[in-house]
């Protein structure tokens, strides 16, 4: 293991972007990082709110129309190598909102997240459990370590 | 042979700086893991993560185009900050006493001022995506003001740094000048020799008060909670550092740890009379002082919310008055 | 207290924040118009979260629509499904077994605990007081585990169904005992936290007199829920709801309407919630938990108001051959947006997000198409 992989495994900065889900996943993720019970920092996962600092972008929600551009802008702002975790059923496949108008394309929901930015890991659940989020972020480690 | 190498002043200074730098990278981790995490009843990251591993990781990240009106200057600023901190440390070493212009309190204060002005420039030059540049249609029909001057969150941060220069750094400078009242000289050499003859300045009445003021000034200049108004998370997010990515962010992170150590060394020179040098065991005392400062700062910051301007002004005023008291007692 | 008037004529600068911001756990855009770091006017733009859930509910069988209402909000999800069931139950005249009512009340009060703890933790986080925030999150974890024990999921439990509660959510002796023990644990932890919090003079100086919402203004802005009660108006729908007839609890009010009042309000209300849960555990009747003996018929528009952690929740829909028609939902944060904008005025920009947070916003519930009728 080179110095690059070694350092990457020991400092992972995670940024959260909420794109209009129901708040359930958002709070569970904050819970997994902020509460001493789950404490993501013991796995050297740090929460950041600055896209320039982030390595992993955790996206929740079905990406509503007004959230599309901010999401793209934040994704652009993250320096490479960057990875995206889509957390929750809404981010994975649009959830209950995806087909709300049947065959008529919805103007509100742009998601799932895959339609807008490339997704590296998917964490299912409605709402996601904190354990799953941690597992999802940690499962990205091999990809992150081998990236250029 | 070895003695010859060590007596060469340049090599001794380089070695001292290297040792100090390596230890300084551990300080943010110690604060995070052993103080914050302990108080918050959790395990916390490994000690090397925030101080060493994060900068190394940032080194390996790809550089991005920074959104700033003057990108080159903006990128140069953290390096300038680092050099300034380095200069302060070099000025503290006994080998630098041969250059009186460098090893005087006036030089150190000047360097600290440069550091502060860097924050203003950083804040003014950073144009992050998180506020105005966020693509969102909010100036539309029905909005309260369609035409208004918009400013980035970093601009507030720049204005606050300017305010901090005008009054926020008084406590630190007053505390820095307090030892002069005892030694009657601005040169570090005289201050150190005075204390080696008459015992540490810290254990006099004026010294004790000045040490408290120094600690408050230390927290203010390091922008640590509760004095972190220029990078308060509740409005300006990270303030001046918003746009730094990759290598430049690595320098920012390293500078912070290094600055923590160097300020501790400043204290041990001015208040205890032990300059940092690899040639004597005194450097252990320097390290211990730096650690004590970090631990104290960690405890204070874990139990305090961020101060707004309303609390900042009285608390800084109080510290300034204490500092004046220390100087007056010292003069008497 | 004089009325704070937004100054619109000379505005020095505008600072937009959002849609992603550390102080906001949800996507919303807020524009602060400031002069020398003092907020003169604030504008919150919602609509970022609009997903059109009423439109999805329209035409669905009522049972499915009930399950869908839970997805409106991840914080007060139980309140939504409860009120949606209640709307149909009131319209169809369904008798609900006593035991089911008790379980619903227990769920609702547990949810109130978790929502108020989230509020306290988020408030401390916006104050940048990480330690307090972590301590409340630690307490909240006990509540989350209890909710997971009863509902089977940490968020969105789907407890209520038409005529009662889901069989999964029935409470046996072991569950009741655990509930009882954990209530003691929560009470102890919360008492410790509140004492510590109120004794902290730095935090107190930071939150006293910030984001003041005068009582008169609160009534004028039609504020609901704890935010209204924190201004001194003792208005709580729980006193009029038949579900709460058997329970003895106080309506907490606080005098000032500032951030401190709001935070203390939530803490004291959590104690009342613990009290209600204890009464429910002690007196829970035996019997069925769901009444399957009802008929579906077409009804006119049915309405139901309940008190949820954040205020008054309103659901209404008509039933047409078992399907939902003309669905309208109004969530409490909708009414509180005016208060959020108002509370910011005259405070430091550092406190501005705190002033928004003090009104307990839930923008994910709030985003619906609305029509303001001025009279």
Task: Describe what this molecule looks like in 3D.
The complex is a heterotrimer of chains A (148), B (332) and C (375). Chain A has 148 residues and is α/β, with parallel strands linked by helices. In chain A, 34% of the residues lie in helices and 16% in strands. Chain A contains 6 helices and 5 strands, in the order H-E-H-E-E-H-E-H-E-H-H. Chain B has 332 residues and is mainly α. Chain B contains 13 helices and no strands. Chain B is globular, with a radius of gyration of 21 Å. The termini of chain B are far apart. Chain C has helices at residues 53-57, 62-69, 77-92, 98-126, 130-151, 173-199, 201-207, 215-220, 225-229, 259-283, 332-344, 349-358, 363-366; strands at 13-17, 29-35, 38-45, 160-161, 164-165, 299-308, 311-320, 323-330. In chain C, the strands form 3 sheets. A 3-stranded antiparallel sheet of chain C has the order 1-2-3. A 3-stranded antiparallel sheet of chain C has the order 6-7-8. A two-stranded antiparallel sheet of chain C has the order 4-5. The longest helix of chain C has 29 residues, at 98-126. The model of chain C has no long low-confidence stretch (mean pLDDT 88). Chain B binds chain C through residues 36, 39-42, 130-132, 134, 136, 138, 143-145, 148-153, 155-156, 159-160, 225-226, 228-229, 232-235, 237, 302-311, and chain C through 8, 11-23, 29, 31, 33-34, 37, 41, 43, 45, 48, 124, 126-131, 134-135, 138, 200, 202-203, 205-206, 348-354.
